[in-house]
């Protein structure tokens, strides 16, 4: 099985999540490529797709939205999983809410794509890397949820990411064998 892990990122941390997902798939025997949405010209030759983005002000980054729009027809015919990386998804009491909100948002870009699974993972919030505009925006976002408003916070839970990837691999296999 050949899987494309297509991700978008603003500050790099979601690329590492995508790599960890691909590594978990490879350890199960799949072939997995990792590519950034904004750099993808074609998605030919893949049997399944995992697509993920950081959440910015309650939505995926624009290149990830565009990826869904552009390749909707292909994605609709293959097994697909989505993942979200965000500050709120790093909190046990807010993770499900991230999944719920994004399940309402993403059909606007690719209504015919029905993901088999959705993961939400804590990402990296790093105020030192934001310019003034992003810092203000992020302080506004965080202000609502009661999170930190300075410093660097790496909330990535690598075990949770890998075990989600293992489950997605199983779901893809079941779908491929006609059982799912
Ligand atoms: C401008 C801005 C807006 C953000 N908005 C949200 C948000 O609405 N909800 C959330 O949970 N996290 C939000 N975040 C946190 C990011 O989703 C998180 O930092 C993510 O892991 C960044 O991934 P990246 O390093 O791949 O760019 C925001 C971050 C920035 C800089």
Describe the structure in your own words.
The protein is an alpha/beta fold and 180 residues long. The protein has one domain: Flavodoxin domain (Rossmann fold, 3-Layer(aba) Sandwich). The protein contains six helices and eight strands. It has helices spanning 13-27, 62-70, 72-76, 95-105, 132-145, 158-176; strands at 2-7, 31-36, 48-56, 59-60, 80-86, 117-122, 124-126, 152-154. Strands 1, 2, 3, 4, 5 and 6 form a six-stranded mixed beta sheet that branches. Strands 7-8 form a two-stranded antiparallel sheet. The chain is globular. The structure holds flavin mononucleotide (FMN). The site of flavin mononucleotide has 23 residues, from helix 1, strand 3, strand 5, strand 7 and helix 5.
What is the CATH topology assignment?
A: Rossmann fold
CATH architecture: 3-Layer(aba) Sandwich
Helical content band: 40-55%
Distance between the termini: 16 Å
Any idea of the CATH class? Alpha Beta
Total number of distinct structural domains: 1
Could you state the CATH homologous superfamily?
Answer: Flavodoxin domain
- Characterize the main sheet: 6 strands, mixed
In N-to-C order, the SSE pattern is: EHEEEHHEHEEHEH
Query: What percentage of amino acids are in beta strands?
Result: 15-25%
Number of strands: 8
